[in-house]
UniProtKB/TrEMBL annotation, chain A:
<dbReference type="Pfam" id="PF00231">
    <property type="entry name" value="ATP-synt"/>
</dbReference>
<dbReference type="InterPro" id="IPR000131">
    <property type="entry name" value="ATP_synth_F1_gsu"/>
</dbReference>
<keyword id="KW-0139">CF(1)</keyword>
<dbReference type="GO" id="GO:0045259">
    <property type="term" value="C:proton-transporting ATP synthase complex"/>
</dbReference>
<keyword id="KW-0406">Ion transport</keyword>
<keyword id="KW-0472">Membrane</keyword>
<comment type="similarity">
    <text>Belongs to the ATPase gamma chain family.</text>
</comment>
<dbReference type="GO" id="GO:0005739">
    <property type="term" value="C:mitochondrion"/>
</dbReference>
<keyword id="KW-0375">Hydrogen ion transport</keyword>
From TrEMBL, chain B:
<dbReference type="GO" id="GO:0009535">
    <property type="term" value="C:chloroplast thylakoid membrane"/>
</dbReference>
<comment type="function">
    <text>Produces ATP from ADP in the presence of a proton gradient across the membrane.</text>
</comment>
<dbReference type="GO" id="GO:0005524">
    <property type="term" value="F:ATP binding"/>
</dbReference>
<dbReference type="InterPro" id="IPR020546">
    <property type="entry name" value="ATP_synth_F1_dsu/esu_N"/>
</dbReference>
<dbReference type="InterPro" id="IPR036771">
    <property type="entry name" value="ATPsynth_dsu/esu_N"/>
</dbReference>
<keyword id="KW-0150">Chloroplast</keyword>
<keyword id="KW-0406">Ion transport</keyword>
<keyword id="KW-0472">Membrane</keyword>
<comment type="similarity">
    <text>Belongs to the ATPase epsilon chain family.</text>
</comment>
Length: 296, 139
């Protein structure tokens, strides 16, 4: 983003052949070099953090695998055509983070929810959005301001299960009387260069078995309710890990592109600088020669 | 017929072991599981899980979660777990338990909301579990 601004400003300046221009160009080259230093180190930091996030994700996958036997519907926004399985009202948990400079990960989540709102309103269904992370909050406020009911921001990563439980508790309390399901929206990590904005639907368990017999140890209601809450927390935790991994991989890529663009910009500026310098020298030479010629 | 126990926390797979018997800290009390147990899902509170290997019991402190029993596989999903070191002194853990209980009583005076008390109650439960586990280890 910084580089884009610099690139726009550079060639627009009229090339007046004076010392000031030369100095200005030299300053701009120095500034761009500094920015490139920052972006390239941010890229390396992101690469290191990506490795950490991938390890955490691998652990979270093992923990979250118990939910795979449950029939929660999961879909990428791209494939989400049919929204008939959505209840009349659902709580949407949008998982983003507080930090930017990472490509379009947060916008992907926000845009997905905007598209979903449009599809659902055609079927007279509503949602309340719980935004996690400052970036998601500000974008969703602009896109679907009416549905945004709550935001959780300012939590430093790495995320842990306690934080996920806190978010889950908040989501479960939100519109508890009318919400038929909780939808978790996050970026699913595919590889270091790809991620999929995904929506996972979590519906409460309904006990459909026979009447209570001797083999039922615990009160079914308590267990099912507790299990549902744990299910929501697990999915949110898993989504957070996926999101954090996607964010770092996307940041790494964004910073690599920025570094590359910065390098190109420096090359261009150096060319302009050399041209200005040569023009100045030529002018000076002409002045000296014509001065000498005038004296003869 | 053998029984397998697996404890999984959000950070890692804490334990995978073959065992003869597992006792789970369920919210309705201790729950002993032997091989061939009927399928079951139960809520666990913060407490001590113990499992038997070659006749000797090993205690583990759990921070609360869920347990599932199916096909001789006990899967325990918990927010956290810790091993008990046999080096830890019983006086120390007992003092920690007394301190945590005193702290809870103090906090109770200022906060009446159940939800805000939860973390303090959990601390007491964990301290109690540690005490019990150490006591069990020392026999």
């Amino acid at each position: 983003m910084l580089l884009r601004a610099a690139a726009r400003a550079a060639p627009r300046r009229p090339l007046v052949r004076t010392f000031a221009t030369e100095k200005e160009i030299a300053m701009r080259i120095a500034a761009t070099k500094n920015i490139v230093k920052i972006t390239s180190s941010m890229k390396m930091v992101a690469a290191a953090k990506l490795r950490g996030e991938q390890n955490r994700l691998a652990a979270a996958t093992k923990f979250g695998s118990w939910t795979s036997v449950l029939e929660g519907k999961k879909s990428t926004f791209e494939d989400l055509e049919d929204v008939s399985y959505f209840p009349d009202h659902s709580v949407v948990v949008a998982l983003t983070s507080d930090k930017g400079l990472c490509g379009g990960v947060h916008s992907a989540v926000a845009r997905g929810i905007r598209g979903l709102t449009a599809k659902l309103s055609a079927e007279n269904k509503t949602i309340s959005v719980l935004a996690v992370g400052e970036k998601g909050r500000s974008q969703l406020r602009r896109m679907v301001g009416d549905s945004l009911s709550m935001a959780v921001v300012d939590i430093p990563p790495p995320y842990n299960f306690n934080y996920a439980s806190m978010v889950a508790e908040t989501a479960l309390e939100l519109d508890a009387d009318k919400a038929g399901a909780i939808q978790v929206v996050y970026n699913e990590f595919v590889s270091a260069i790809a991620y999929n904005p995904t929506i996972k639907s979590i519906e409460p368990f309904v006990y459909e078995g026979d009447d209570v017999t001797l083999t039922n140890y615990d009160a079914e209601d308590t267990v099912l309710k507790g299990l549902y809450e744990y299910y929501v927390a697990t999915e949110i935790f898993y989504g957070m890990m996926q999101g954090a991994t996607s964010e770092q991989s996307s940041r790494m890529q964004a910073m690599e592109n920025a570094t590359k663009n910065g390098g190109e910009l420096i090359d261009k500026l150096v060319l302009i600088y050399n041209r200005a310098r040569q023009a100045r020298i030529t002018t000076e030479l002409i002045e000296i020669i014509s001065g000498a010629a005038a004296l003869e | 017929m053998s029984l397998n126990v697996r404890i999984i926390t959000p950070e890692k797979v804490f334990l995978t072991s073959e065992t003869e018997q597992v006792v789970l800290p369920s919210i309705t009390g201790g729950l002993g599981i032997l091989a061939g147990h009927a399928p079951l899902v139960t809520i666990l509170e913060a407490g001590v899980l113990r499992y038997k290997n070659n006749g000797s019991w090993t205690p583990t402190v759990l921070y609360g979660g869920f347990a599932e029993v199916e096909n001789n596989q006990v899967t325990v999903l918990v927010n956290g777990a810790e091993e008990v070191a046999s080096s830890s002194s019983i006086e120390e853990v007992e003092k920690a338990l007394v301190d945590a209980t005193a702290n809870l009583e103090k906090v109770k005076e200022t906060i009446s909301e159940d939800r805000k008390l939860k973390p303090e109650i959990l601390k007491v439960q964990i301290a109690k579990a540690r005490f019990e586990a150490v006591k069990m280890l020392k026999g």
